[in-house]
Specification:
Elements (H helix, E strand, L loop, with lengths): L3 H5 L5 E4 L11 E8 L8 E9 L3 H6 L10 H14 L5 E7 L1 H8 L7 H18 L4 E7 L4 H11 L4 E5 L2 H4 L1 H20 L20 H9 L16 H10 L36 H5 L9
Parallel strand pairs: 2-5, 5-6
Antiparallel strand pairs: 1-4, 2-3, 3-4
Length: 299
């Protein structure tokens, strides 16, 4: 699983897949879908699909696949390596890494697009993308997001020729969903460990679990918010935990149509231009470097 392309441009989503053995194209296959990282305020959400011939379901179960949340990190890595090795024989997988930036921008867009809708659309794309690769998908098993009956009916309408099963805790019931769960969790864990902070490559990595309720995570967020540019791309800035810190710690933004008199200088908020100048030895923000912006000294 090569995540280097995503890490080099982590503000964009990245989809990848294993080899697709001929066996997956020559007979009916089952496909399972699960995600990792839905709740954290840090890092991407990763959706994965795993697929194998229906005739090989028991072989997948015999590998020991289980819900990734009940497995140790070492066991997940071991099982993923087994799955990956089998991808040249009878198993395939596909993973879509949804960047924190994409998640937040989607949730804050003018048209309502919540996390459930985003999750549904990502799962639908994984099914379509797998079919485009030539895999003969006849059964789909998904760990539900929202009411399972509504989600299943939505998928049946889109894929009338496929048997669809949407259930709660599907990752603990169906080995093909467990395998997808393992792929998603292993991918997210690797991304979190290897994340490249382009804003500051010496940034503190003691950010705890990444969940909003974690005091270590909250402390890290407060220490790493820029007053002008906000958080690094690692943060889902649409999460209420992050947005509250932005309100408390960052500069407020005044748009041209704000109801303020032009000559009002009573605000204690520093002018944004005061942050453009750099002293000797100061490191310029990534935004200015990438856009070739410099302080104007003479006109």
């Amino acid at each position: 699983m090569d995540i280097s392309t995503f890490l080099s441009k982590s503000d964009e989503n990245y989809k990848m897949h294993s080899e697709i053995p001929d066996l997956l194209k020559d007979g009916p296959c089952c496909l399972g879908i699960d995600e990792a990282g839905r709740g954290p305020v840090l890092g991407p959400m990763v959706y994965s699909a795993c697929f194998c011939p229906i005739s090989k379901k028991q072989d997948l179960a015999d590998m020991g696949c289980d819900d990734s949340k009940v497995l140790t990190e070492e066991k997940r890595e071991e099982l993923f390596n087994t799955l990956h090795e089998a991808s040249s024989i009878f198993i395939g997988w596909m993973t879509n890494i949804l960047s924190p930036n994409y998640i937040s921008n989607s949730m804050l867009s003018r048209t309502k697009y919540n996390l459930n809708s985003l999750s549904h659309d990502t799962a639908i794309d994984l099914i379509r993308s797998t079919i485009k690769l030539g895999v003969d998908v006849k059964e789909v098993f998904i760990d539900t997001v929202g009411p399972p009956e509504t989600y299943q009916a939505k998928l049946k309408k889109l894929f009338p020729d496929i048997n669809i099963c949407v259930e709660k805790k599907a990752d603990a019931k169906y080995p093909v969903v467990s395998a997808a769960s393992i792929c998603a969790k292993v991918c997210r864990d690797r991304v979190i460990k290897e994340w490249v902070f382009f804003e500051n490559n010496e940034m503190d990595r003691n950010y705890g679990s990444g969940y909003p309720s974690d005091p270590t995570t909250k402390s890290w967020l407060r220490k790493n918010v820029d007053p002008v540019f906000g958080f690094p791309n690692f943060v889902r800035f649409s999460w209420s935990t992050a947005s509250k810190i932005l309100e408390d710690e960052a500069l407020s933004v005044h748009w041209p149509d704000d109801d303020e008199s032009e000559g009002d200088t009573s605000s204690n908020t520093p002018a944004i231009t005061s942050f453009f100048a750099t002293g000797a030895g100061d490191k310029r923000h990534r935004f200015f470097v990438e856009n070739n912006l410099y302080t104007v000294e003479t006109i």
